[in-house]
Amino acid sequence: MAESIIELKDVNMTFQRGWLMRRAQLQAVVKTTLDIKEGEILALVGESGCGKTTVGKIMAGLLRPTSGEVLFKGKDIWRMGREEFREYRRNAQIVHQDSYAALNPVRTIYHSLSAPFLRYHIAKNGKEAREKVAELLQFMGLTPPEEFLDKYPHQLSGGQRQRVVVARAVSLRPKLIVADEPVSMIDVSLRLSILDLMHRLNEEFGIAFLYITHDLATARYFVKGGQIAVMYLGQMVETGRLSEVLQKPCHPYLQALLSAVPVPDPKKAREKRPLPLRSLEFPDPTKPPSGCRFHPRCPYAEDICTQEIPALRPLDGRLIACHLAEKIPEWHLL
Ligand SMILES: Nc1ncnc2c1ncn2[C@@H]1O[C@H](COP(=O)(O)OP(=O)(O)OP(=O)(O)O)[C@@H](O)[C@H]1O
Ligand code: SF4
Ligand SMILES: [Mg+2]
């Protein structure tokens, strides 16, 4: 069994919101546990505002959680010495959705991409850095590289810019890339080619991915035999092998999410029954429901659901956070 590359253990993240009298606390991530093995792909899925980016930033060491542990190869990153932390940061890169904001507009592609090579002494001088950047651009499908080296970000298309951003993330051969909605701002026609490129990076260099998305279709396409984790309002609700979890979702929230996805086959569409939610309203995240945060909408909720936060526990080959998981009816979609 592969070793864990990154693990979150019982992680909580609370933000302070507002100012003076209107201050409020927002618990964006609640008691979250997640484990990505070396070379594994995990899709983190959930609706807008459920805490996906916060989890991604915590994994990449950009945010320090309020409590809980973040382990890189078994070591708590917030207890590491300076050198060790620097090495971890080199190994855990992040790709954001907005490639324009990610690149310095007054730096050429060569300057943006050569900086990490020079900073980490992977290239001895400018000439060697230029050769390495050209090789990297070639691998990323930006050919011929000479056409791109001296361009500025605004001279590239969105798809080309995102390839440059992925190139920068991969230049130091990290062990993990957190890809936060990496294709959501790219033309639909180019999305699959960027996902294919990231998949090649996973296969050829063994880079593990946390793929953050609200789109189940791209998660399915990119993750293939990997894992999925589903979040609802800061709580992890179900994790496991993607094919099994989406084939037979156990958690009522995931069942509801899947029943809202249109299916192309008219026969299957007729068979699909929407899960009758008790409420369609998304709760105010500053005043989250007690216990299971899904309880005001869940058709199966009982008293315990309003009182206790359900822990993630093993069931049916996956982990699920639902007090009544054994009693939830099966929901066959596929
Ligand atoms: N720095 C911050 N200060 C205060 N609140 C924050 C901060 N960052 C995130 N939040 C809040 O935490 C919650 C989770 O935000 P997050 O960006 O992680 O969600 P998300 O799932 O990535 O959403 P989206 O799909 O829209 O990107 C939201 O309610 C958000 O407003
Ligand atoms: S814990 Fe209760 S409210 Fe939450 S999903 Fe399970 S049955 Fe529904
Ligand atoms: Mg986000």
- The proportion of strand residues reads 15-25%
Label the overall shape: globular
CATH C-level category: Alpha Beta
Number of strands: 12
Q: Please give the oligomerization state of what you see.
A: single chain
Q: Which architecture per CATH?
A: 3-Layer(aba) Sandwich
Defining key terms:
334 residues, alpha/beta, Rossmann fold, eight-stranded mixed sheet, four-stranded antiparallel sheet, 34% helix, 22% strand, globular, binds adenosine-5'-triphosphate, binds iron/sulfur cluster, binds magnesium ion
Detailed description of the structure:
With 334 residues, this protein is of the alpha/beta class. The protein is globular, with a radius of gyration of 21 Å. The chain has helices spanning 52-59, 82-91, 99-102, 109-119, 126-139, 146-149, 158-170, 188-205, 216-223, 242-247, 252-259, 266-271, 303-307; strands spanning 4-17, 24-37, 41-45, 67-72, 75-76, 92-95, 176-180, 208-213, 227-232, 235-241, 313-315, 318-320. A hairpin with a 2-residue loop joins strand 11 (313-315) and strand 12 (318-320). 34% of the residues lie in helices and 22% in strands. The protein has 13 helices and twelve strands. Strands 6-7-8-3-9-10-12-11 form an eight-stranded mixed β-sheet, sandwiched between helices. It has a single domain (4-106, 152-327), classed as P-loop containing nucleotide triphosphate hydrolases (Rossmann fold, 3-Layer(aba) Sandwich). The protein binds adenosine-5'-triphosphate, iron/sulfur cluster (SF4) and magnesium ion (MG). Adenosine-5'-triphosphate is lined by residues 15, 17, 26, 28, 46, 48-54, 214, 285.
